[in-house]
Specification:
Helix content of chain B: 25-40%
Number of strands of chain B: 21
Number of domains of chain B: 2
Radius of gyration of chain B: 22 Å
Number of helices of chain A: 12
Distance between the termini of chain B: 67 Å
Strand content of chain A: 25-35%
Distance between the termini of chain A: 7 Å
Helix content of chain A: 25-40%
Radius of gyration of chain A: 22 Å
Oligomer: heterodimer
């Protein structure tokens, strides 16, 4: 490829970096009990919720940030972050898409997420989180008919306090880790899904997160509960505008699956990764955990991680119920100076539990990427089974790819397998493609897509298309 | 004062006693030794014993060592008949140590070819302490671990093996460490230095064995330099008594075109921790790590390996097999590190574990840390049980289930044993594994029959 063209590609600005000019009701930077009280009051929360937050905050103060990850970043000043930002007119929520602020729609349009189209054609209900407050929820009625509750977590706190009380923090305890504690104290919004017994959610549920106001950390809290025999597929996708200062994102996602329930959680994460010198970019510290409480329950995590300056994320499954299943499919792509330390934990507690982990990591540029996973088989997990495959692809000689799989096996009837490979795109592979008239860039894209196929086929259709596009955008200009 | 400090203090007190006595007997030590001893003691005091909060010791609890009160052996008495029974039936040169002290009576160095020196450390220091001072501590400094610091503080005895360039030693060199059962548990801190000159070739056997009732603590540090084009095979046959505590680190530095092959065969010991680190510093250097650990009862066997690919065109192969029975606990941590710009690397790592009992536990962590792109690295680890179909296949041929299980276990270990070049060692391990299997029966007989068949 011509070097000039390459230059252009490498220098290409972040396509989705723009700021929508909407006035935000933003809290000045800083964090103390007053901040938490403000957030809680602003959201009209009951007393118990505020207590819960304050309790988490007090515990957080005594904790220290984790340092074991293979990541390098300056200490975060938690007092320099603003903890609340909501679009104006919180009381005056639009009831349908037509009432939505055209500027907001335009934003989504630019992101290539036509809400109209998506909602109507794909039959997806979208709970769009613009900054911290859910702005619009569509198809609510249809879901209501089926008995599915799909709303923002703040609404859930008001409307279904019993459910929230019962499940919030039951999968990821407040003191689970530093970032989970912080999230518990200051979470602003997120989604709440409740699928009652025997119901298969009639459509895929989806949320688009978007960090907008400058200096605003986002602290999403998502809670999904599937009762006996219920099923749901949940999609989460993210993009963020260009910023100079690092933005902190510390989300918590909790999934609960009772007997025979199935939760599928898919993520496409494309936050701003910082410029070529590593300036700016999102710090993404996420705690995601699913609890297979019931027998034969199943939780499946699929993620495509292409963005963020720093990713610290380990979607996990606690396989408590007999014969429950945990799955983890991941594609992580890092370029520039991105750093990612991601993986999963599969905790086998119940008899006959099974888990599979497929992780594909692609590092390019000066990025560093680590797979960190834990497979733990408890003494009661008779006949537990795990298969792990994690492959890394290196593009360029300045990047790094690392694998840190932990296996703790305390049961002789368990079968645990782990395979990992690290390689680069073979010159013979490239030559084979190029000799058939395929350009180098396209050949790389094809090979990388083939490398990730096992994961992409787990994604819902429209997400898979988006993921493939994202992948090639992220890797553009990294080969030559 | 916390508990840890008092534990550390016990060891520091012992060190002070020893140093005072040494001064009385031998006068002032060379300054460099005294300085390193001091540095080791200071480092150990600062670090204390590792706890399970330390990543490198996450699965290994060393409180049994920390809480122990170990004396230092006073003499190297050992019944020659008993020693002969414990000695490997190999035609070899041998240095024997009893509880860490050199025993000239039990050693055998006759006919050592020119260009090879095999000397106890104490004698090497007497003869020319400066020649030892250079390499000692260069690869394994006091920073490496609290145990290496402790070893440096106590350093006194061990072995120095030097191969002049181009020397080929046909017979293996055995370093035998005997552990005695006595009224008081003792500790020893052997230090091994191996300098294999350019294009030299040798086989080194480190053999740890002892009286059944012994319950001593061995804290060994080995530093191995394999120069350009040299080939060194290093067997570590660890058959220490079941109450022995054993911590060892082996640090290898490899030059261009060199080969270092390690066999880490762990059968004995109550608590065993081995760190094996190889620095591949020259092009076309190869490290081969083979390992086998067999744990039963409440044995705890921890193997940590690191292959540092510091130069391009370097290769590492690793194959570790673990068999765990009863309440044994196995730990495997293998790491392949490829430095920036170390291109054209191949690093393979494989670890397979067999759990024979419900209460046995294995913690495996195969790591890859890669900073270059033109590499082929892979690792795999599996843990499971014997294949029921294989057992069925054997049973269908008239072999009873327990024998079938024993044979399959032996076959599982076979993959590593096949690579063992010294038959005496391979047979010994096979018999040990066969004899240790819960189904004793006629397996040993089967093995002997197979060996006899092979001989014919």
């Amino acid at each position: 490829m011509a070097s000039q063209e390459m230059e252009q590609l490498v220098r290409r600005e972040y396509k989705e970096g723009f700021v929508t000019d909407i006035e935000s009701d933003t809290l000045p930077p800083g964090l103390d009990e007053g901040t938490i009280a403000f957030i809680s009051k602003k959201k009209g929360e009951p007393e118990w919720m505020l207590e819960w937050r304050l309790e988490a905050y007090r515990k957080w103060l005594k904790m220290t940030p984790p340092s074991w990850a293979h990541l390098d970043y300056p200490p975060i000043d938690y007092q320099a972050i603003s903890y609340f930002s909501a679009p104006k007119r919180p009381e005056d929520r639009p009831q349908s898409l037509d009432e939505v602020d055209p500027k907001l729609l335009e934003t989504y349009e630019k992101l290539g997420i036509p809400l109209h189209e998506r909602a109507a054609l794909a039959g997806v209900a979208v709970d769009a989180v613009f900054d911290s407050v859910s702005v619009t929820t569509t198809f609510k009625e249809k879901l209501y008919e089926a008995g599915v509750i799909f709303c923002s977590i703040s609404e859930a706190v008001k409307d279904y306090p019993e459910l929230v009380k019962q499940y919030l923090g039951s999968v990821v305890p407040v003191t689970d880790n530093y970032f989970a504690a912080l999230n518990s104290a200051v979470f602003t919004d997120g989604s709440f899904v409740f699928v009652p017994k025997g119901v298969t959610c009639p459509m895929e549920l989806s949320t688009y997160f978007r960090i907008n106001a400058a200096n605003t950390g986002q602290f999403e809290r998502t809670l999904i509960i599937c009762e006996e025999g219920a099923q749901v597929s949940y999609l989460e996708g993210c993009t963020a505008p260009m910023r100079d200062e690092n933005q902190l994102h510390a989300a918590v996602v909790e999934l609960v699956a009772l007997d025979d329930a199935y939760i599928k959680y898919s993520t496409v994460q494309n936050w701003y990764p910082g410029d070529e010198d590593g300036k700016g970019g999102i710090y993404n510290f996420v705690t995601k955990r699913g609890d297979c409480r019931g027998d034969r329950s199943r939780i499946s995590w699929t993620q495509v991680e292409t963005g963020s300056a720093i990713t610290w994320k380990y979607p996990s499954c606690v396989l408590r119920g007999k014969e429950s299943i945990g799955e983890f499919y991941s594609v992580a792509v890092t370029n520039g100076r991105q750093q990612a330390d991601t993986g999963t934990k599969m905790i086998h507690i119940g008899e006959g539990t099974r888990s599979s982990i497929i992780s594909k990591g692609i590092s390019a540029g000066r990025s560093n990427q680590s797979y960190r996973g834990l497979v733990k088989i408890g003494p009661r997990a008779k006949g537990a089974r795990n298969f792990t495959q994690c492959d890394s692809l290196l593009i360029g000689d300045q990047c790094g790819a690392h694998t840190f799989p932990y296996q703790e096996i305390g049961n002789s009837t368990a079968t645990v397998e782990h395979e990992a490979t690290t390689s680069k795109i073979g010159e013979d592979q490239l030559f084979y493609c190029q000799s058939r008239g395929i350009s180098e860039e396209d050949a790389v894209s094809m090979i990388v897509n083939g490398f990730c196929k096992d994961v992409f086929q787990e994604l819902p259709m429209e997400f898979a298309v988006e993921a493939e596009a994202l992948l090639s955008v992220t890797l553009e200009g990294s080969v030559g | 004062m916390s508990d840890v400090t008092s534990e550390v203090q016990t060891f520091l007190d012992r060190l002070a006693e020893r140093s005072a006595r040494r001064r009385e007997a031998q006068g002032q030590e060379p300054t460099w030794i005294a300085a390193r001893r001091q540095a080791g003691a200071a480092r150990f005091e600062a670090l204390g014993f590792p706890t399970r909060r330390d990543e490198a010791w996450k699965y290994t609890d060393v409180r049994a060592i920390a809480r122990g009160d170990f004396a230092l052996a006073e003499d190297a008495e050992f019944s020659p008949a008993a020693a002969a029974a414990l000695t490997l039936p190999l035609d070899a040169y041998r240095l024997t140590f009893v509880d860490g002290l050199f025993s000239a009576a039990l050693s055998q160095l006759d006919g050592l070819p020119d260009g090879v020196t095999v000397t106890p450390l104490s004698r090497a220091l007497e003869e020319n302490h400066e020649a030892v001072g250079g390499p000692l501590g260069r690869l394994t400094g006091v920073e490496f671990s609290p145990f290496s610091a402790l070893n440096t503080a106590f350093v006194e005895e061990g072995a120095v093996v030097r191969l002049a360039p181009g020397t080929v030693v046909e017979k293996p060199i055995i370093l035998q460490f005997l552990s005695r059962a006595g009224e008081r548990a003792v500790m020893s801190h052997p230090r091994i230095l191996v300098e294999a000159g350019g294009r030299s070739e040798a086989t080194l056997v480190e053999h740890h064995v002892g009286e059944e009732a012994a319950a001593n603590f061995t804290n060994l540090v080995a530093e191995v330099i394999v120069d350009r084009g040299a080939h060194l095979t290093h067997y570590k046959l660890q058959e220490a008594p079941l109450s022995d505590l054993h911590v060892a680190s082996i640090h290898v530095e490899q030059g261009r075109d060199s080969t270092y092959t390690s066999f880490n065969l762990n059968l004995g010991g109550g608590l065993v921790r081995t760190d094996l680190i190889s620095d591949l510093n020259g092009q076309n250097a190869t490290s081969n790590f083979y390992g086998l650990f067999y744990g039963q009862g409440r044995q705890h066997v921890d193997s940590h390996t690191v292959a540092n690919h510091n130069a391009p065109h370097t290769f590492s192969n690793e194959n570790y097999k673990g068999i765990l029975d009863d309440r044994a606990h196995g730990v495997f941590n293998g790491r392949v590190v490829v430095k920036r710009d170390s291109q054209k690397i191949e690093g393979f790592q494989s670890n397979a574990n067999l759990l024979l009992s419900d209460r046995a536990e294995i913690d495996a962590k195969p790591e890859l840390e890669i900073y270059a792109d033109d590499v082929k690295c892979s690792h795999g680890t599996t843990t499971g049980q014997l294949d029921p179909e294989a057992i069925y296949a054997l049973r269908a041929r008239g072999i009873d289930e327990q024998t079938a299980r024993g044979l399959l276990t032996l076959a599982f270990a076979g993959e590593v044993l096949e690579a063992v070049g010294l038959d005496a060692i391979a047979e010994r391990v096979e018999l040990a594994v066969a004899g240790k299997l819960p189904e004793r029966f006629n397996l040993a007989g089967l093995v002997e029959a197979a060996v006899a068949l092979g001989d014919e």
